[in-house]
From TrEMBL:
<dbReference type="InterPro" id="IPR016024">
    <property type="entry name" value="ARM-type_fold"/>
</dbReference>
<dbReference type="Pfam" id="PF14868">
    <property type="entry name" value="DUF4487"/>
</dbReference>
<protein>
    <submittedName>
        <fullName>Uncharacterized protein</fullName>
    </submittedName>
</protein>
<dbReference type="InterPro" id="IPR011989">
    <property type="entry name" value="ARM-like"/>
</dbReference>
<dbReference type="InterPro" id="IPR027902">
    <property type="entry name" value="DUF4487"/>
</dbReference>
Amino acid sequence: MFHDGVIYFFSCSESNYGHYFVTCTDILTALFRNSYEVYLKYLRALEDKLYFSCSFEEDITLLNDVMDKTVAIIEIVTGLDIKTAAEQWKSYLKVNSKYAEKIRDRLNLLRPLSVLLCNIQQIINTVTTNKEVLDDKTRTRHLKLGSFILKIFIKLCDLHKGFLDDCLSLILEMLLLLYSCSKNCGNDGLINQELDTYICIGGAALLNQFFEDEHFFRELHNLFIRRMELPVNQFGMHNVVLIAMKKLVVSQSKAIHDLSAKYPFIEMVITLYNDVGLTIGTNFLLEGKDMYMSTVSVLMAFILSTVSASQYIQIEKLLFECFFSFNCHTALLVSDIVCLIARFTNESICLEMVQYLCETLMFWQVHLDTERPEYVIASATLIRLCKFLTEKSCDVISDKYCQNYASHLSYLLARGFCKRKPIPTLAIPDVSSLKEDYNVFVNKLKISGLRKYVEDKCETHKMYKMLIAGFNTTINEKNTSELGCSWNLFLVNQLLRILPIFLPNLSNTQIIQVLSGLHDLLKHGNTSIRVASANCLQKSAENKLPLDFESKDVCTKIADLYATLLADEDPLICQEAVESYSHFVANTDNKGINTLVLNQDNDVQEFLTLFQQKKITIKPKQRYLLLFHNRKFIYYHKCLKKIQLVDDIPYPPPKKLKHNTEDDFVQSSFCSILKEIKLVKDYLKSHELPVNSKGLLKAIGNEIDEIRNKAFNEETYEEFG
C-alpha cells in the first residue's frame, strides 16, 4: 500500500491537485507515519514470522516479488533520513541471508545492487561537487552513510559469490567508481583522505572476491574492448586492472598463468595509461603509493611472474611499438619498464634491446629532427641500458656500431659507457698506501679503468691515433657534423678528459702533434672547450709530464697554449687559465716555461704581473660593457627565426568606442528579461502554468505596463513638443 501510494502521489499534477494537498497536509503526514509503522511491523514479520518454502516454485517467485517491493520502498525512503535507510537495508540483508544459502542462485540481486550503486554515486557526487556548501559534519554524515551502503553491497556479493554472472556489469561499475572517485575532487587533500577512509577503502574488499574469477575478467576484458562505445570510466578501469594484477602476483595464485594467457593484462594497462596518463597528477595515490610508481612496479612484477619465453616476444613487440608512439608519457613509461627488465633479467635480453635501439637510431635523420621526443626518449633509454652491460658486451657493441656508422650513435654509446659505475677494487693497486691523501685516492679511482691501456704500449699508440683523429675531425666537421654543437662539445671534452693520462707515456714527437692539434682546436672552440683545455694542462702537470732540456719544443707548445688562453677576452677563461698556469708551474721541474709564456705577449705579461700582485686583472669599465652586452641578448626559437611577418599596408588606429553605462545596463536588463520570457513560453507549451505563479505573473505585467506607458508618453512629448 505504501509503495502504491507513492506511485499515485508522483503521478498527480501540482497545478491540478496542489491546493488539495496543502489543505490536508496534517492528514497526509499522519497517513505516512501510520503507513511507515505498518511497514516496520511487516519487515519484522518478514524477518522472524513469515517463512517461504524453498522447495516450491510459487514460494520462490513470491519471495523475489516481496524482495523487489522491499527494495523499491527502500529506494524511496533513503533520501528521507539516514537512520531510516540504515534500518531498511539491515532488514533486507537479514531476509536475504535467511534464504541465500539454499536458493542463492534463484534470488534476483539486480535491483538491490543497482539501487545501492545509485546511492553511492549520489553520495560521491554530493561530497565532491558541493564541497564549498557542505560543512564538515554534514559531509561526514553522508560519507558514513556511503560506507554503510557499500558494506551492504559487499555483503550481498559475498552471500551470492559464484552466482553473480548477471550482476558482473554492476559490480564492475561499482569498482570503477570506487577506484576513481578521489580524482573527481581535484587537489583537495582533506576530501581525498575522507573518501579513501570511508568509501574507496571498500574497493579492495570487493575486488578480493573476484580477482580469481574468470567470468569477472571476461566481463572486464569485454568492457575494455567496448570502452570507446560506452561511457566507461577509463581512469577507474586502469586502476582496477592494475590492482587485480597486483593481487594475482602477491597471492601466487595458480590461476595467474591461465588468466594471463587468456587476457592481455599488460596491453590493457599500457593502453589505458596511454588514454588517461596525462590526467594523472603527481599527488594521485593508489593504495597509499604513488600511482606512476605503482604502475611501473606492478607491470614489472607481472612480467617477471607470468610471462614465458614465447610470450615475451609479443610483450617486447608491444613495448617497443608504444616506445615510438606519439604519446610521450606512454613512451616514458615503457622506457622505465624496459630498463627494469634489463636490470632484473639476464644480460642477453639487455644486449638485444641495445642492439635494437642502435639499429633503429642508426638511420635516424639527426640533422632534421634531433629534438623530436621520440629521439630524445630513445637515446636516453639507450644510454640507461648501456649501464647494465658488462665490459665484454660493451666491446661487442662498440666494435659493431662505433666505427662504421653515424657519429651520433657513437656519441650516445660513449655517453652510455662512461656512465657505467667504476669498480673500486680496480683502483686499489694504483694506491701505494691507504694513508695517502684522500683526494689522490679519488683521482686515481676515477681513472683506474684506463690504467691497463696506459701500461700497454700498443693500446697507447691506438689512443694516440684516436686523439689526433678526434681533434682533426672536430675541427674539420664543426659546421657539418650531424649533431652540430652538442656532438662536438661532448667529443672534445671526452678527449681532453683522457688526454692527461696518456700524455706522459707518449714520445716528444707525439706530444708535439697532440698539443698542436689542441692549439688549433682552441681557435675553433667555445668557452667550454677552452676551460676544459686549461684543466687538461693542469692535470698533465699532476701526472708528472716529463719536461727536460731535450723537450724544448714541447715546452714551447705548452707556452703557446697558455698564452692563447691567458689572452682570451672572456674573464672566466682568463681566471681558469691563470689558476691552471700557476698550478702547472708549481708542479713541473722545468722553470723555463714561465719565461716562454712571459715572452709571448706584453698583455699576457701584464696580466700575470697583476695576478701575482693580487690586483684587479680586468678594468671595471670593460667588465661592465661585457655584462651589459650579454644582458641585451634575447633568445629566439629557431622556428620563429624562419617566420618573417611583412606588413606594408598602413592601418589607421582603431577608434575608441563610446560607452554609456546607464544605457548599457537598461538594454542588458531588457535582453535578460526577454530571454527568460522565451524560456517560460517554451515550458508552457508542454506544461500548465502553476497556480501560485499567476499572481506573480500579474504583478510582472503591471510593472512592465508602467514602464512601457512612461517610455511611449515621453516619446510622444518629444514628437509634438
